[in-house]
Design brief:
This protein is an alpha/beta fold. The protein folds into two domains: 14-108 and 118-316, ABC transporter transmembrane region fold, CATH 1.20.1560.10; 334-419 and 495-582, P-loop containing nucleotide triphosphate hydrolases (Rossmann fold, 3-Layer(aba) Sandwich), CATH 3.40.50.300. Helix content is 63%, strand content 11%. It has helices at residues 14-22, 24-40, 42-58, 61-110, 118-132, 135-142, 146-156, 158-205, 207-212, 216-268, 274-296, 298-315, 374-381, 404-410, 425-429, 438-453, 457-461, 480-492, 510-525, 560-583, and strands at 334-342, 349-358, 363-367, 389-394, 397-398, 411-414, 423-424, 470-471, 498-502, 529-533, 545-550, 553-559. A hairpin with a 2-residue loop joins strand 11 (545-550) and strand 12 (553-559). Helix 16 crosses helix 18. It starts with 13 loop residues before the first helix and ends with a helix.
Length: 584
């Protein structure tokens, strides 16, 4: 994912582009309202000009009353248009959230390199949305009208117009210096803040371990250092930005007052009327206001641009687009073709050119020492980790060829850690699917069937609210063994045709392992393809073949009896060699 501190170029992406295009209508109408607003902003200047030039010399009370009514109507219309413009921008922000948030969250859940980035990227998205409705966007809409105000100043007198142009040039120079002085600082501060958020999220996810090992004080110091670094960078950017913002305000106030002085001088020389003095001051102030607004909002604009770049980088991760054509129902043939998988940082290969052919209905065990790549292999089999090379095929079609919902319904997966979610036990087993009417009854029946099959039904009924018991984050409220049984029930939900289990018996007692073995035997009789990673190999007694991995490479793939015989022979040779060495 692209960091904020890196140079960015303007690129486009269909997901972001379509969402922003859908908000284009709101922004166009907001720009039209801005045009009307800026025309009405001329009303105070015209009112003052007419009062001083027509009403005061002629003592025309009736004229004053009519001018006042017209002025109040213009101001009321101005206020209404300003409200409508603000509401349009707010609705544009809400629409952008409605259109883009599902794609953003979905991409975060799919993209393997976005792990730990979710909260940060959602904050980036909110920064982009808030900038759309902020003062910076309004200043951008008003900016094209600054030359028009300057033109009106020229119509009043060329000297007034020249002064307006000179003031604008000074403010634009300050805006440029502000951008040059704060851009790198804001980006560095944002990167530091991102890192701090990620580390805090990781520590909170392991809060129990932190307390148990007495790591709290050390981690607090670490996170405080992260915050202090980010805060120091933010303060530097804020100080630089405040300096230029203060200069901009000072220049604007000084120029507005000097405009009064210039107008008075021109009036003394009888080149303009008395009312033009005050009208010119208001017009110059109005011409400079958008430039000052852009300067004030420049930091937010930099952050919004960086947020756009970060979101663009996420949507361009290259995650394969799923096929949309519904394929024939899954039989369960699994083929692994020259599969290589890299680590999350893509610095080295964890699996090297694995080739496997598993027939529908086979039960295959995956064994090997720790770090051999067993969990990486099964994660790649279910699409949880992308391939660096090669492919995984189910019934001849790659994982990307299958519509996501069809493939997910055909696969049952138990990860090495149960990975339960905040919600009820029923929701976790049902994979958070919902149904209404008769479908709700069928859903409940399927949840209970899956729980019965892995032996989880009885202990669930003993919980305070049975299947409606609400779990905390990461399944808090259950023991590790209970959580693993819920994960098994979730894998069996929907009668999948391929079961991929990563150490499903790691936290089960003898009774639970017996129930798991019975469940797997039942699945095997039903013709389900079963792939099981196990260190405790008792559960692999019914397996047809075994895969042996070592250092990310396929060492053996043969019948269970042949693999056991070869492994036993290797151990005997090793023991004999060790004994001979000892005797020597």
């Amino acid at each position: 994912m692209q960091r904020r501190g890196q140079p960015q170029r303007v690129r486009h992406n269909p997901v972001l582009g379509d969402a922003l295009a859908a908000c284009r209508g709101h922004l166009i109408h907001a720009a039209l309202f801005s045009a009307l607003l800026n025309l009405l902003y001329l009303a105070p200047s015209l009112f003052m000009l007419q009062v001083y030039d027509r009403v005061v010399p002629t003592r025309g009370a009736v004229t004053l009353a009519m001018l006042t009514l017209i002025f109040l109507a213009a101001v009321a219309t101005l206020g209404l248009l300003d409200l409508l413009r603000t509401r349009l921008l707010i609705r544009a922000s809400a629409r952008l959230d409605r259109l883009l948030a599902p794609a953003l969250i979905g991409t975060l859940l799919q993209a393997p390199n976005a792990q730990g980035q979710g909260g940060v990227l959602l904050r980036e998205f909110d920064t982009l949305r808030q900038t759309i409705t902020g003062l910076g966007m309004i200043a951008l809409f008003d900016a094209p009208w600054s030359p028009i105000y300057m033109l009106v100043c020229f119509l009043l007198h060329p000297a007034l117009g020249a002064m307006a142009v000179g003031c604008s040039a000074v403010l634009l120079l300050l805006t440029f210096l502000n951008e040059r002085g704060t851009k790198a600082l804001v980006q560095d501060a944002s990167v530091a803040q991102q890192h701090g958020y990620q580390r805090v999220d990781a520590s909170l996810a392991a809060a129990g371990v932190v307390r148990a090992l007495g790591m709290q004080a050390g981690l607090v110091r670490l996170h405080l250092r992260d915050r202090q670094l980010a805060q120091a960078l933010q303060m530097r950017a804020a100080f630089v930005g405040a300096r230029y913002l203060t200069l901009s305000r000072t220049v604007r106030i000084a120029m507005q007052s000097l405009a009064l002085g210039l107008g008075a001088l021109l009036a003394i020389e009888q080149r303009i009327s008395g009312g033009t003095i005050f009208a010119a001051s208001l017009l110059i102030a109005r011409a400079l206001a958008p430039i000052e607004g852009i300067t004030a909002a420049w930091r937010n604009m930099i952050q919004a641009r960086a947020a756009y770049g970060a979101l663009l980088a996420l949507f361009e991760t290259g995650w394969p687009v799923r096929g949309q054509t519904r394929l024939p129902e899954v039989r369960g043939d699994v083929a692994v073709e020259r599969l290589s998988v890299a680590d999350p940082e893509e610095t080295r290969l964890v699996l090297h050119a694995i080739d496997l052919r598993i027939a529908a209905g086979e039960m295959v065990g995956v064994i090997g020492p720790s770090g051999a790549g067993k969990s990486t292999l099964v994660r790649a089999l279910v699409g949880a980790q992308p391939a660096a090379a090669g492919a995984v095929r189910i019934d001849g079609a790659t994982l990307a060829d299958w519509p996501e919902e069809q493939l997910a319904a055909a696969i049952g997966y138990v990860p090495q850690e149960p990975t339960l979610f905040h919600g009820t036990i029923k929701q976790n087993i049902a994979r958070f699917r919902t149904a209404e009417g008769s479908g709700a009854a069928a859903l409940d029946a399927e949840v209970i069937r899956a729980a019965r099959q892995c032996g989880a039904h009885d202990f669930i009924l003993r919980l305070p609210q049975a299947y409606d018991t609400r779990l905390g984050w990461n399944g808090a409220g259950l023991s590790v063994g209970q959580a693993q049984r819920i994960a098994l029930a979730r894998a069996l939900f929907g009668r999948p045709r391929v079961l991929v289990l990563d150490e499903p018996n790691a936290s089960l007692d003898a009774e639970g392992e017996a129930q798991l073995s019975a469940a797997l035997a039942e699945q095997k009789r039903a013709g389900v393809t079963i792939i099981v990673v196990a260190h405790r190999t008792g559960i692999l007694a019914a397996s047809d073949r075994l895969v042996v991995l070592r250092d990310g490479r396929l060492e053996m793939f043969d019948t269970r009896e042949a693999v056991v015989r070869r492994l036993s022979g290797s151990r005997a040779i090793a023991d004999e060699a060790a004994g001979a060495e000892g005797r020597a």
